[in-house]
Amino acid sequence: VRGLYAIVDPERCAGRDPALVAAAILRGGCAILQLRAKKGSDREVLALARALRARTREHGVPFVVNDRPDLALLADADGVHVGQDDLPIAEVKRIAPRLEVGVSTHDLAQLRAAIGAGASLVGFGPVFATASKDRPDPVVGTDRLAAAVRAAGGVPVVAIGGIDLGAAARVRETGAPLAAAIRSLGESSDPEAAARALHRALLGETA
Amino acid sequence: VRGLYAIVDPERCAGRDPALVAAAILRGGCAILQLRAKKGSDREVLALARALRARTREHGVPFVVNDRPDLALLADADGVHVGQDDLPIAEVKRIAPRLEVGVSTHDLAQLRAAIGAGASLVGFGPVFATASKDRPDPVVGTDRLAAAVRAAGGVPVVAIGGIDLGAAARVRETGAPLAAAIRSLGESSDPEAAARALHRALLGETA
Questions:
Q1: Quick one: which of A30, B67, A113 has its CA closest to A21?
Q2: Of B12, B36, B55, B200, which residue is the catalytic one?
């Protein structure tokens, strides 16, 4: 898997229906689509996860739910993505052995720990400054991203944090196969075009 | 099971260690102990749930986790208790078939739906005015509680909302086998004595 790791956050969709934003992103193109839902009741999040699961399936795109293995299982997602304060990988695998588990990491020690615990994929960042998180971790930059890619030993690294079209080439040069975007998709006036351009740029294709 | 359904909420422990508060309640006596954790990271909640599971096991008391079947499974709880906005019973049972499922209900329609869906236990309330919830549902009173007990057809009903020692006799007269308490235990200067007195009063034993 290479290219755009598209993250749909209902709070970062400029007030539009997140399922429609996801549909537009999928038309534009992405390698993986993740739901990032930090608010809303479990029923609401599950309903949204299922809507996104249906859309991703139409496009043959893997679907990931953040934080919650139970909701990921119920939505028939391919994976769950957890942060450092969420359930550890070993716990996730106990209750959801069929899920791929991605982990957000912010330094090489966290990255190595995640891979040692069996992560299928590791996020690494924030690579650049970001406004998508209320309390972002310190910026890591592209040199440390490149070091993370080397340290990951083949486990896919998702560059995350402040990644837009202008940064795509620099991210690609680090060897990171995937790069995540939230606001530059969901808050774009044209999420389909934004996804298409960013996915292509990350793949190194000319537009 | 009859008597006190003790709910431990870390935010309603007067700043004390919730595991110590739980231990005191268990020494005093209760029929079931539930963790109610609305804040904190999943890792923190799981650690607390496991601490409470260990304490309840020492006393042979069933242990329930609120809202989250994944955390309930990982903590080896006996059950999970869900509200009307949490996962529906059918979804909980899909991912956690071994858990007993309790459901909070606030009117007879919700109570009947929960029992129809296979609830092991139903909460009903708030019976009296309560300060434990930020946005409480309308007070139902003891007459409607008695109607709920009749409608439940043998499924245990947990009276909840503003229940203290002075209300125990009125609750018992409705036929509800269990009554929940949060603040009157966790915010008591002596949770052990508070639990002992309330559990006995609910059982109709003289102190």
A1: A30
A2: B36
* Distance in angstroms (rounded) separating the CA atoms of residues A4 and A79: 16
- Specify the pairing of strand A32-35 against strand B178-181: unpaired
pLDDT of A100: 98
Distance CA B154, CA B162 (A): 24
Bridge partners of A63?
Answer: A33
Nearest CA among A109, A114, A141 for reference residue A125: A141
Instruction: Please identify which of the residues B12, B55, B68, B104 carries the catalytic annotation.
Output: B104
CA dist A181 to A199, B70, B151, Å? Answer: 10, 28, 52
Question: Going by C-beta distance under 8 Å and a sequence separation of 6 or more, which residues neighbour residue A174?
Answer: A142, A145, A146, A149, A159
Whole-angstrom Cα distance, residue B203 to residue B207?
11
Place of tokens 């086998």: B177
CA distance A35 to chain B (A): 18
Res. B207 pLDDT band, cuts 50 70 90: low
